[in-house]
Amino acid sequence: MSLRVVPIALIAACGGGGKDSGGGPVLDETEYLEQYPSAFCEVLAECDAENFEQAYGGDLQSCVDEITSVGRDRINRGCAFDGAAAGTCVSELSEASCAAWDAGEYQESCGAIIDC
What's the DSSP call for residue 114? Predict the structure, then answer.
């Protein structure tokens, strides 16, 4: 897996996918695309700076734009979207620690958002 794909893998991961199957605040697709990319990219930049630099040249907006585009494309293709998982993921990322990031603690909620 290329370094550029690593950040995308989280958004593109197949998860438990049905509509609103998780806990936490429910986000619709628009809210998700407004909130998740920046939350994800900020944590990636802080907790995995080397991959962030290699994938996005250290440019936060490039990361946000790419993550938004990938998410929008998957939603537009009709992939299942889980608004509760999206809300849980964004909430968890807003309180993220690098130790939790390194341990993969966000993969369950963030990996279950979009299921193709």
Answer: E
Helix (H/G/I), strand (E/B), else coil: 115 = strand
DSSP per position, 29-86: HHHHHHHHHHHHHHHHHHH-HHHHHHHHTT-HHHHHHHHHHHHHHHHHTT-EE-HHHH
pLDDT digits (tens, 9 = 90+) for 56-111: 999 999 999 999 999 999 999 999 999 999 999 999 998 889 999 999 988 888 99
Amino acid letter at 103?
A
Rg (CA), the chain: 13
Contact (Cβ atoms closer than 8 angstroms) between residue 35 and residue 85: no
What local confidence, expressed as pLDDT, does residue 6 receive?
A: 47
What three-state secondary structure class fits 5?
helix
What CA–CA distance (Å, rounded) separates 55 from 51?
Answer: 6
User: Is there a contact between 83 and 32 (Cβ–Cβ < 8 Å)?
Assistant: yes
What is the value of pTM for the model shown?
0.80
